[in-house]
Amino acid sequence: MGEAVSQEAAEVVRPLRDPATEIGAAAVMLAAEARLGPRVPEALLWCALDGAEHLRVHAAALALYHAGGAPESFDWKQRPLFLQFGESDRTVRLPAVTELRRRMKAT
């Protein structure tokens, strides 16, 4: 059974860690939300910083939700932070990921 869970987690982590993925955001985030394993939260953080452009904002939101820092998978109150992950300039995303990690630990 543990092996099946690992395979499911790998199927979730793979598109999160692929900056060239063309899989739609809804499909990837629903899978990540449904199959949270030990590797998925870190993959969400990686994706928020360096993942596919169309996934970064959603990955940040879901990472905060899974850490208990948001009441739903996209907390609109946190939207200003999440939108920073949509910026093409990585230097904008770096402090945003630091703030996201801080909010995750604050829960």
Summarize the structure.
The protein is mainly alpha-helical and 107 residues long. It has helices at residues 2-16, 25-34, 40-50, 53-66, 79-84, 90-105.
Distance between the termini: 31 Å
Order of helices and strands: HHHHHH
Shape: globular
Q: What's the total count of β strands?
A: 0
Polypeptide structure, described:
The longest helix is centred in the last third of the chain and has 16 residues, at 90-105. Helix 1 packs parallel to helix 3, helix 3 runs antiparallel to helix 4 (53-66) and helix 4 (53-66) packs parallel to helix 6 (90-105). The protein is mainly alpha-helical and 107 residues long. The chain has one domain (2-105). It is globular. The chain has helices spanning 2-16, 25-34, 40-50, 53-66, 79-84, 90-105. Helix content is 67%, strand content 0%. Mean pLDDT is 85; it is low at 1-5.
Main traits of this protein?
107 residues, mainly alpha, globular, 6 helices
Topology:
Blueprint: H1 2-16, H2 25-34, H3 40-50, H4 53-66, H5 79-84, H6 90-105
